[in-house]
Amino acid sequence: MPHPHPILPSITVALAGWCPLSPTAAQTTQILVEPPWRPAVLWDQVTLTCKGSGTAGATTWYKDGQRWGQKGVNHFTVKESGNYTCDRPGTKLSPPVSVLQDPLVLQVQAQPLLEGDTLTLRCRFWRDMSLTSVRFYHGDEEVNRPLAGTELSLSPLQLNHSGQYHCRVQ
Fold first, then answer.
1. CA dihedral 107, 111, 117, 121 (to 10 degrees)
2. Where is the Ig-like domain (predicted)?
């Protein structure tokens, strides 16, 4: 019986441009993810914190587009996979944060990426069980790296590093 084709975890790396803060930036609501990797995985015991202006006690959370949880809770440990957003009176809804329950995931640090930075991608299997023969791909091309392991480091980050990455494991 043939093996089903594995679903390969992938991630898109996009470099952010630099711009000065505008007055509207202060009105932006964001979700702080701990540990600071995206996409987050449920088996990491992820904590989400709503950050931004407005009263922390007036925070409203949404899961998969539906109002969720107790109003006024500013942070919590995630117990269910899904897409989470938050807001407070007078601010805009935060960008969504995905929390997955996938057994194999490719993660990137949860931070804006600028040229010259060091970027680490890590390929992880359920609760960090041991992986052998991890291969990273940028588009369809395998990425040559000096050391074996579950991480790929891109440094210094350049515009040609942008694009889709995925990992394969045995």
1. 0
2. 9-86, 95-170
Residue 105 burial class via C-beta count within 10 angstroms: exposed 0-12, middle 13-18, buried 19 and up: buried
pLDDT tens-digit map of 9-42: 666 655 444 333 334 444 588 999 999 999 999 9
3-state helix, strand, coil in the chain (%, to 5): 10, 40, 50
Q: How far is it, in rounded angstroms, from Cα 67 to Cα 10?
A: 29
pTM over cut 0.90: no
Tens of pLDDT, residues 40-67: 999 999 999 999 887 778 899 999 999 9
In the numeric block, the tokens 């057994």 are attached to 103
What are the CA-CA distances from residue 167 to residues 111, 128, 162 (Å)? 21, 15, 16
**How large is the C-alpha radius of gyration of the chain?**
18
Residue 100: exposed, middle, or buried by beta-carbon count in 10 A (0-12, 13-18, 19+)?
A: buried
